[in-house]
Every structure is written in structure tokens, then in C-alpha cells.
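Fold this complex.
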Amino acid sequence: MSAIADSALAPEGERKIRWVAGWMPVLNRVRERLRADGTVDGRRVAVILPVEPKTAYLAAVLAEAGAQVAVAFPGVMVHDDVAAGLAARGVEVFARRGSTPEEELGYFEEVLALRPEVVIDDRADVIRLAHTTHPEVLDSLVGASEETTSGVVALRAMEADGTLRVPCIAANDARCKYLFDNRYGSGQSAVNAILDATNLLLADKDVVLLGYGWVGKGIAARARGLGARVTVCEVDAFAALEAHHDGFDVAPAVDACRTADLVITATGVRGALAPDAIDALPDGALLANAGAVDDEFDLASLRERAVARRRVREHVEELELEDGRSLHVVGEGVVVNLSAGEGHPAEIMDLTFAVQALSAAHLLRHAGELRPGVHPLPVDIDEEIARMKLDALGLRIDSLTPEQQAFLQAWEAFA
Amino acid sequence: MATADVAGRSRIADPSLADEGEQRIAWAARHSPVLTALARDRLGDGALRGRRVAVVVHLEAKTAYLATLLAEAGAEVVAAGSNPRSTQDAVCAALVRRGIEVHARHDSTPEEFTADLLAVADTGPELVVDDGAELTRRILEHRPELADGLRGVTEETTTGVARLRAMEADGRLTFPAIAANDARCKHLFDNPHGTGQSALTAILRLTNLAAAGKRFCVIGYGWVGQGLARRAAGYGGKVTVVEVDPVQALRALMDGFRVAPIASAVEDADFVITATGLADSLPASVFPRLKDGVVLANAGHHDREIDVPALADGEEVRPGVTRHDVAGRRVHLLVGGALVNIAGGDGNPVEIMDLSFSVQALSVHLLASGGVPPGLNRFPAELDREIARTKLATLGIELDEPTDAQLRVAREWSA
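Structure:
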């Protein structure tokens, strides 16, 4: 039994799902293949991803290929109409905008009670939950496929201390995922969501960006493309040098924040924006998080410090501090392209969800063969997805001649 | 003027939306430091006291703040929208509660729209802040006797200035008018930066599609088209420009964009955006050449830049997106061909309109003060510089001054 806000919203949700389906040619090919080969037919698959149209279409594709699919996610990233549309397609959905943390835990537990064979996870939330409080579900779990950088980090930590009991594919680390989703998907949609939410101009702004990973790279490029001056704050020396050579200013956060109009976090680290950097911010500065971790800046303690709090636009909260400054938080400190927008563009998620669908199929096809631990998506699957996308775009590329291949394989000096 | 009278005379959709409208106006006010400073320092000298001022500009939060400041300077302000698709009912409700008479409703019919503008005309305005000369041309056409009472018109847009010029050529511009659009603080920022950013973000939000790697066809390389091309490239798009002016076409080429005639330019375009100020800039004759799945948007002045009547009836596939069948190909039209950044979003960024409306505020103040001759006038260069200096001061940016020696050398002419 699904737990959703309002099943009457299903037609609007269905319309949104259909729109994105038209822009996901690779996932459509994967659907045909899975329907034909029966890999997921009758298998129980949990999809733990933000409930928006693209995710819904992934769940629908798996269901159309015969899988029993259950979907759950915390409420701040749930579109109730899409949840209703998906439930109407026969997928079990446990997600409702505005759900409480207790309810959300309950939703995850409902999904685990269905004894999924594969979990397509986000931030490793459900895999961690299974290992900590519900180990009984691990016996029937064939494996998991992880969507985010921060989730892969958590799974590696579990592997390192010997607690990870199932094989997990780092879907995030597939090239068809992070090279496009993290960079172009987040870059466009995070910047767009902030501009939509605020109706402000980027062209005269000092943007301070914490983190120059793939997400940070995409945001920096797009912010510059819209005319902003971007300063990158990093803890990693290589990433900092990369930012420098890409033409961005590099500075410690506490210095960069002194003149910041807009701070965007993209680190995957809780508390990435330290209190002294927040204290350095000028009056009126905007804060948004584009990373996968909710508390990249400590909104809870900012709210506690605030002498007044008010909603100034639909997705903007003003926090008036005791020192007289006001800070504006966009999208509740949660990944802003989903909390204040519709998430990544459909064509980008076409690649990501082709990775996820084929990753789930790979786990099921090789049930029992993969050892517990973190595995890459096989390179041939990754490459095949890229070729399907090129083909759908009508793009052709060259291939190596036998002589060129021979050259690359020769190792003798002066061959 | 009693608020009850104002409410009685106004024609708006829903007074109960006032709180939401207030919130939006407050946000706009907060990010309009130039207008706020100029209102404080310049508008309150009595020139506007008791003057009947009509504000006929896209009726959303930024315009409402301008109307409010004019009212606070003592003017009797009546407001209407310049396009029914851009009118925000919540903002209208807040304005009426602030004691300003409003005649505007979102999505009113062309007949209702004209009736609203004539109702504004019938209040006998002395000063008009116009957009597209929508009110001025209706006064000349339907209420010619009221033209004698006009102390001046100040015009917001390229298209409106062209219309005023046409009126002047016909000998109908018997009153002073100022081409506010042609002020540097307006067209150098509002047209390229304001519309460039807001049209692109609106298109991407309405569709949830990716810009990276897509081909954008920009029709018209005026100030708006230049901004669209630059921002489309900034989002990772490839741009083809269509022009009829050879100088502008060369400019586009040297700015790094492909230039082509419309018939071939649309063939590989994923997005086609019009910005010409002309009717049928995207004519039905090129529809058969459009690519399957193309998205059409208008960022120019009026709603006729795309030949929408020639498209077959469409089906709404997402809010603001209709799908039309053209010879078996899917063509997606955004917000019915209306201005995409205003009808499909919140319009230009606040900081941009801060500059544009500072021009309008000083322009209407100048007209109220008298001394501007009948006919079309330039906005005084000294006021233009004052606005730019004020904006720089709010950003904490100081400027250098030329030295006496430099000025002396600049004046020398002998070899």
C-alpha cells in the first residue's frame, strides 16, 4: 500500500512523467532490452531516489520490465503529483512532501519489509539502515547500486571496516554518470534553481563556491557563463590548482566569504561552511547547498541563532542574526536543484538512469558471484551507454585503425 | 485618497492575494538600492505632488515598487499591465491595498485588456510610464482629446520608442516624450543582461531540458539577442544567429557565433528564440524545416514574433509547454508565444529593473518638472551617469577620474 499525499494528483504527475520519457532515448532502449531479456522480471527492486519525473520514469521502466518496484524518499524532494502518477502506474510509493523524519524512517522500513533483492540507493541511506538496524533483510539482498558521490564514500568506509555485507555498484563512478550528471546536470539546474527562486541577477555577483569536485566544476562553469565572478574554496590541493588553471580565484572560505553575494556548497561534507566563514558573510548574502549532504552549512544552528526568521519568497528564508545581518537561505539547505526546482535536465538523467537500470540488471544477472564490497560498473556497460547516447543524438565518431591499435600496444622503444 | 475608493475603482482578480504580493514587493524593494536612494534624494521635491501618473508596465513586483515610490512622492498613481500574460494578480492585490488604483488581471482577454487601458486613460493621466507605448497609442487612437492633458510620456522598450518615433513622423507627438529605453543604464543592462538571463532560465525551467551541447537559434542580434546568445553559450549551448542587418550579423560572427539565414539556421536547432520586435520573425514558411522536438520561445517584444496562429492546435504537455504537430514533427511552443521570461517566469532580475526603473523614475520626475519640449527626447546623459554612479556606490565600487593633464592632452588638436 502506497503512502502518498493525494492520489487525485495522478494525471498531472503522469503528464510530467510522459514529458521526460520523450527525452530519455537511452533509457527507452534499456526498457526494451529488459522487457525482452527478462532479467528483472519478477524481481523486487527498491528505488530510493528523489521523487520527481525522471526518477519516476526509471521506476516505471523497471516495473514495465516486470520488476516489483517500491519507491521511497524524504519529503523535501518529493513532488506529490509525480508520486501519485507513479502509484497509479502500479509502483508502491512511500513519499509525501512535508513528511516528518519519523515518517521517513517508517517509509524506508516499509520498503525494507518488502525484502528487496536490489536497492538503487541515494547517499547509501537504505543500505546503511539495513546494516545497522535491519540486518535480517541482508540475506535476501542481492546487491545495491549507489547514485551519489557521498553514498559511495560511505559504502567504501563500510567496506574498509568490514561491515559491508552485500556487493554494491558505485553507479556514481560510472563515466556516463559523474561526467554528465554531477557536472552538467548539477551545474545547470543548481544555478537555474537559485536564479528562479530569487529573481536576482548573477552578472554582477561575487559567487563563492565550496568544493571543486564534479558538481563544483559544473556550477563554476555555469555561474561564469551567466556573468558571475567565482571564487573557489577547496581543501584538496589538486582541485584547488585545477580551479586556478580553469581561471577561477581560489581562497580560504573565511576570506572569500567577506565579499560574497552568494555562497554555494558542493562538497558532500557536513558542516563544510564553517561558522567563522558564516560570520564573515556580509548582510544580505544568499546561501544555497548544491551538494548531496543536507547539512553542508549548519542551518539548524543558524536558525537557532536567528532573532527573526521569515519566508521572503517561496523558496527563500531570511534569517535575521543578533548582529543585525540578514542571511537568505535558498531551498532549505537541501540540495537546491531538487528542493527549489525539478532536478536535473531530463537528457542528463537519461544517462544516469540507464546506468542505474543496467547496474541493477547486472547485479541480478550475477547474483551470488560478486563478493561483498564496492564494485565499479563494468566498463563495457558504461561504454555501451555512451554509444547508445551518441547514436540517439545522431552523432558518429571515429575508431582506431588496426595500425593505430598496434601502435598503442607496442612497448618496445623505437618500434 | 481613501483606500476603499481605490478598491472600488480598481479592477483586479482577487484582493485576498495581497499578503503574497506584499512579500514579493518587499523582496524587490530590498534589492533595488538605486531606486530607493534616488527616490529618497530626488523624487520628494514636490514636482510629482498631485500629478496623475499612469504606470503601464508588466505588472509584477518590481513595477509595483516603482509605482509605490511615485505614490510616496505625492503622485496619484494608476497602474495597469502592459501584457495580460505578465500581470501577477497577487502583486495587483498588494498595490490596491497600498492605495494605488489598478486595472489589470492575469490572462485577461484582448478586449478586457483594452478596456483596462482605456479605464486608465479615462483617469486623465498627466504623466505616463509606458511599455510598448501601449497606453500612449490607445490614448491617441481612442481618447485623442486627452493628449492635450499629457505633460509627458516616458517609454520603457525598444519597440515602444519605435512606435513613438512613428507617431512623431505622423505629427501626432504633440507632447514631450522621453526614450527611457535608450538610456545607457537601461538598454546596456536590461536588454542583454536582464532578458538574456531571465529568458534562458525560464526556457530551461519550463522544459526541464539540458542546454549543454544543444543548438540555439537566436533570431535577431540586437541588445536582447546578444544577451540571449551569450547566456546560451554560457550554459554550454551552441548558437546560430539570424539577422537582417549586415553590421549586426558581422558582430555576431566576430562574437564567435554561427550566422545563417533562417531557413537553414532552424534545421539543426533544438531551441529557437525570437528577439526582433517584428511580427512573424519565425514565419510559418520555415515551420516545415524545424527539427523534431524543437522548442520555440519568444524573448522579443510582442506576442507575434512567432507565427503562432499558423501552428496547428497544440496539446499542453507540461505547464507552459504546448506540443504542436507540424508535418509529423513535434514542435514545442512555450507560453503560447508570449514573452517567455515574463509570462513563463518572474521577468528580469530585480537588480536590472532597479536600473531600468531608476531611469523611469528620474524620467517621469523630469517630465513633471517641466521644460522638456514636445516630441521624442533623449534621457539626459548626466542623469544616466548619476544612476550608474549610484549603482556603483551601492556595490562599494569607486572610480578613478582623468587627471588634468589627461584632459588637456585630450583637448589638444595640433600635431
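The domain at 3-188+348-394 of chain B is CATH 3.40.50.1480 (Rossmann fold).
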